[in-house]
Amino acid sequence: MVRSCYIHIPFCSHICSYCDFSKMYYHPDWCNRYLTALEKEIEQNYQKEVLETIYIGGGTPSSLSVEELNRLFQILEKLKRSRNCEFTVECNVENITKEKLELFLKKGVNRISIGVQSANPKILDFLERPYRKEEIKRIISLVKEVGFSNINVDLMYAIPGQTLNDLENDLDFFLNLNVPHISTYSLMIENHTKLGNQKVEAIKEELDYEMYQKIHKKLEEFSYEHYEISNFGKIGYFSKHNLTYWKNLKYYGFGLGASGFLSNIRYTNTKQFQNYEQGNFRNFEEKISKKVDMENEIMLGLRTMEGISKIEFIHKFGQKLEDVFPMIQKLVKEKKLLETKENYRIPFSYWYLSNEIIIYFIGEVE
Amino acid sequence: MKKKNIRNFSIIAHIDHGKSTLADRLLEETGALSKRELKEQMLDSMDIERERGITIKLNAVELNYQYQEENYLLHLIDTPGHVDFSYEVSRSLAACEGALLVVDAAQGIEAQTLANLYLALEHDLVIIPVINKIDLPNANPKRVEKELMDTIGFSEEEFILTSAKTGEGIKELLQAIIERIPPPKGCEKDPLQALIFDSFFESYRGVIISTRIVNGSVHVGDKIQMMETNAVYDVTELGVTTPKEEKRECLTAGDVGYIAASIKDIRDVSVGDTITHFKNPCKTPLPGYQPMKSMVFCGLFPIESSKFEDLREALEKLKLNDASLVFEPETSEALGFGFRTGFLGLLHMEIIEERIEREFGIEIIATSPSVVYEIELTDHSVILVDSPSKLPEKQKIYEIREPYIKTSIFTPSEYIGPIMELCQNKRGSYIGMEYIDEKRVNIHYQIPLSEIVYDFFDKLKSYTKGYASFDYEVIGYQPSELVKMDILLNGEVVDALSTIVHKDFAYNRGKAVVENLKNLIPRQMFEVPIQASIGSKIIARTDIKALRKNVLAKCYGGDITRKRKLLEKQKEGKKRMKQIGSVEVPQEAFLAVLKMEE
User: Fold this and answer.
1) Residue A261 and residue B557: Cβ atoms within 8 Å?
2) Has residue A9 been placed in a domain?
3) Whole-complex ipTM
4) Which of A168, B134, B176, B359 has its C-alpha lying 20 to 30 A from B188's C-alpha?
5) How far apart are CA B359 and CA A122, in angstroms?
6) Taking the model in full, what pTM does it have?
């Protein structure tokens, strides 16, 4: 049963140097046409399930005008929501306004995620984020003032030139914002981004690792739970939407370049505006066999603090985890996995090497 | 066909001197193949041969040619040109009465050509000197003629000038083949004596034998016996290669063709053996061949240990037409079950490895090659050791002796300096130098074979821009100050990485090997020390730092497929590695001991 839905808004008023998501410069005409196509996609595919989470991501959803946002929410009215539905909108510091925030609140949005990334002017310039820490403080206060308490801020680290001291300062600043959720991302320099094209070199692996340790230590100290590789939250504020992914559950993905998982199909939409506008939404579909599904369950579950639940695995697949993946015992013996009565998880000391452990499970089921 | 109208001949030439093109031209001229059917270099049938531009296997074709109103049958037996394969050359020469010596009109004679020519002269073959590529702008046939007259003693009238490219001189060449090369001797009435000079395996027909009928005749349905293995079979098919297979009812003295007899056990057929009739056998077998001694040994191990039996089968099938390939089971703590395999040289080794991977689809790890050492123990008994792991303890060794070779390096005189430097660096001692003509010399050095096994060929090529050619003969064993150098990964000796090195070179080599390994072995979840040691003494050390980060941080908007693809790719990379203790080691690492940047 589908309980989650991701909606992609590809427009940005400014393209950041590191971004490799599906994105394009904001233009009113394009935006209008895009919303028309998005409406069509939802109408054609949405099966009227009651949704527990909706996530509007980007791109920069907050780059849309109030009128356009109004139209977007009108389209999204088609989506049935449960009473506790977690409804998130991603916002950027430079284009969020009181008016837009009030609209979000009115339309049922109850979680705001802000791509802050850093408060360090040197880093903001490198990432091409057009604001300073004063604006960040002002916007966070505004978000709270309008009435949101469930707030996430993104923190980026491992940026070329960044020192441990720079990170320490950013962490202090972020903690002072006093929001219940922080997502942290180590900068990945991807091909076809500005940084990738400039052949910018990533920082040393050792420093990256030290930064990760520092973030973990500091945020836990301030009672944020490190509940997933990249995510920290106060109890009660973990992102339900992101946990949909890590629990290998079904979700719609609507919009340019969005991915979804419905019945036994995982799909990714086209990143070509024209194709999307013409109604050729999907670019890639893959039928997920039981074998791949079981492996995905591990691959995703092992990213979390909870790990993989033994009993849920049996309920879902009718087989015992240990029978499907006999190598589990060896990994437990080597202390690469921790076993409790209910679950298996990767010990924190290996989280930053989780791929090394997860690949034991990939392509193993016959 | 009357025997007097049969000619059996082979071609001797250096790589690139146009042997295969010349053979193609002969096929075309005699109408064996139309131009349309002619793939470039028809006789090199293996992919590897075409890709590398070398001939490895023997190939026999039958050509029909009309000359002065008589029909002639010409058997061309193609031969390899590389130093490693002189054994194959001698096999093909044993089936011939004549040989074409093909020399490039621009380059002159090369070291290896000369060596093969001497083989042909030993077999009492008639030699026709052919100066090829006369169409080249820098061709100098007169100079080459003089060179051949001076070094070998041909007379001026004997030379045939050709261009395999344009076809010039091909008719004259065919004429010379018929007039100068004698027809095969032997008598059809005598009991059957047929030489097995090659064989290969086909799943449907079994072993196919390439043979030269020396005496008597053989018919389809005949009961034949292999004189060495005593195996008896009924002939199911006979034929000749033109180069398409053409079935015949019988082959008689002088013929070169193939025999199939539903032979399923490849061990029954031994190259060099004599075939005779079961009921009316000949009295004595043909002389056959002196089997070649393997010069270079290495361990071959399947990456997937379950492929051990497949590897055995692959080696057995390859041995069928390559008697020089020897192997016996070997166990390595690091690599599991495999085979200690002997080769004629490095190229031979490379070719076999490549054929196992390509033709049999088995991924293998080859350990670094070793020569055969003679070890005199303290009780003065002598043992032969072809693998560092078989070297006895130091206290039990009285003396280690290693094989030495004498080089013939043909080179333009401007490269004398660099070549001498190279040879000195390879522990060589100078013997002498001869001028072939005013511009080219033949340099002789005495060098340990083990030094050639490393990167000598590559170095020689780069030092001389490819102008030098190289041949060698083994001149015997000499005592050397040799030691066994071990490599330790994470504190444990990896037997497959041990080598035998000269004492004076050990320190440098050890340093280079650990550095190479550091670059080849990916970071692991823990720090891995790499050490080189002699006995218990560590002579070099470096560490592979622990892997710190291998994680997918981003969520990619729920694009799980992309995440999975990245992980699958990593998994694929891991699969190609061998787990040694707790360290994952890629294939290339086992050859790291070879690559020495000085």
Assistant:
1) no
2) yes
3) 0.90
4) B176
5) 58
6) 0.69
